[in-house]
# Entry
Amino acid sequence: MCGIAGIIYKDGEHNIGQDMTRMLQSMKHRGPDSTGYALYATPTEHVVMRYTVANTTTPRDYEFQSRLKRNRAEVERRLARLDATIISNEQETDYAFRVTLDYAGDLKQIADQIEDVPDCEVLSLGHSLEIIKDLGDAETVCEQYHLDTFSGTHAIGHVRMATESDVDISGAHPYWAYPFSDIAVVHNGQLTNYFQWRRRLERSGHRFNSECDSEIIAVFLAEKMSEGLSLEEAMRLSLNELDGVFTYLCVTADALGMAKDEMAAKPLVLFESENMIVMASEEMAIRAIIDHEIDTYDPYEGEVMVWTR
Amino acid sequence: MDAITGENQIVYDARGLVEPDCAVPKVSKIDGEKATFDALDLTTRQINLELRWLINEEGITDVTVQNPGAKHSLGVGLLTRCKITFEGSLGYFACGIIDGPEVHIKGRVGWSACENMMSGTVVVEGNAGSLTGAAMRGGDLIVKGRLGARSGIDQKGGLILTMGSVGANTGFMMQRGRQVIVGDAGHGLGDSMYDGIIYVGGTVRSLGIDCVPGEWTDADTEFIDRKFRIYDLGTPPTFQKFVCGKKLYNYDNLEASERKLVL
# Structure
C-alpha cells in the first residue's frame, strides 16, 4: 500500500522534521516496514552526505562492529583521497552517518568511491538535500536521527509496505537520483516496465542500489532534467514512459512536484494555503499538522503539478 | 481482538490501527432525541460505538459529531433511519453499508465513501475522493464539490449527483442507478457499463467501451428537476445522457458450447 507525503513552505524555513514525522506517523497503517524522509534546508556552500556502512540485513556476527569501524575509516580515507575536507562526521546510529564536506569536485566521484566500499550506500549527496531512512515507524526513525529539530523549507516522506523487494534500508524510500545532487523521489504504486527502464538507464551509465522499482523514477527524472527539461516537463514525460499504477512526489533544491498516472489508481490529497502546500495519501496526515477543518481535493488522473519556493 | 506485536513492539489490530480501547465512551451530551459529541480525542472504533449506542440503545434520532478529523471508516453499518451530521471532513470508507440514515457531512470525504450504501441520503458539502459510491445499491449521494476517479464503480442502484467534475472511469461496470455530473467527466466514462444512466453537464474526455449517448425523455427532465429541487441545488444545466450500448451485454445469450447442451 505505502503512504507518501510532501510539504513545501513559501515563507522560509519551518520545523519540517517534526511536521513530516507527524504526517508519516499518522499513516503508519499504510506501511509499517520502514520510514524515510527527504528534507531540504537552505542550500549551503558545503556538501552534505548521508551514508550507511551496513544494511539492516547485514549479518550481526562477531565481526560486525569491527567491520563498521573499518568501513567508516575506509570512507574517510577515500574522501581524503578525493580532496574532500571533512568538516564534521556525525554518527546517527551504529551504521548511519551524516558528513559535511568542503568539496568542489564531481559529486558522482564521491558517490562511486564510497559505494565501492563493501556494504556502504550513499543515501543522499548535495547542498541542501538530506535523506534519512530506516526500519520502523516515523517516531522511531525521528528519535533515532534527531529529526524533531530539523529546520527546512520543503520535504517529502514515505512509509513503506514492502511488496516487490526486501525490508531493508536499500528498499526504503525516498530515493536519491544518483548521481544528480539534491533530487529525490517517493512513490506509491508499481511500475510494470521497471526492468526495461533499468536496463536502458544502466546502459547510460547509471547504477542502482536496490531492487525497488521506485528508484527508476528518481534517476529517470534527473536524467531528463540533465538533458534540459524542466522538472514539470520531465514529470509529464514520465507519464508516457513509465508504465503501471503510481502517484509519486519529486523534490529538487527549490521545487516540489506531484504526478499521478492515467488510471489515478493511487491516492493523493492536496491542500494549498498562502504559506504552504501539503499533500499526502490520506487527509488525516495533513490534519496531523493542521488542527482545523481545511478544503482539500484529489488531483485527477494524468495530472502533474509543480510548486516552487 | 488479538493484538499482533512485531519486532518493533508496535501494537496493531487487524486493520493496522492502534485502537486498544473498544468500550463505548458515552461522552455525548443528550438533549431529548438529539445528541452531540466531540470526536477529537476518540478513535474510529470509539466514534462508531458511540454512534451505535446512541441510535440503537438510547433511541436518539439526531446526532451531531464534532471534530471528526478526517478519520477513516466513520458512520459505517448504520441500519436505521436517523439523522447524523459530521461537522468536518471524513477519511476513507465513510458511511459504508448504511441502510436508512440521513447523513450530512460538512467537509470532504476520502476514498470509497458510501460503499455498498443501501438506502438513505448522504450530502457532502466538499469534495469526495475516488471510488465514491462503489457498489451502491440505493439512496441518494450528493457531493457538492468534485469527485475522484471510478465513482459508482459496480453501482447497482441509487443516485450519485456531483456539482463538480469527476475523474477517470466513472461508472465503470455500472449495473443500474443514475449518476448526475454537473461538471466535466474524465476519460473512460461508463466503461463496460451493463445498464443505468449517466448525465453529464460539462465535457466528456472520452467514453468507455459500450457507453453511448442516450435518447432524452421527459422522464429524464422530471428526474433531474426533482432531485435539484429536493436538494436545493438551483437550476439544473443542460445535460447529455449516456447509457449502455449493450454490445457487450451478453447475459441473456448462451455461449456456443452451452447452446449445444441445451439444444
Notes: The helical segments of chain A are 16-26, 64-81, 107-115, 138-145, 194-203, 214-226, 231-241, 283-287. The interface with chain B takes residues 28-30, 32, 135-137, 140, 262-265, 267, 269, 282-284, 286-287, 293-298, 300-301 of chain A (CB under 8 Å). The CA atoms of residues 100 and 245 of chain A lie 38 Å apart.
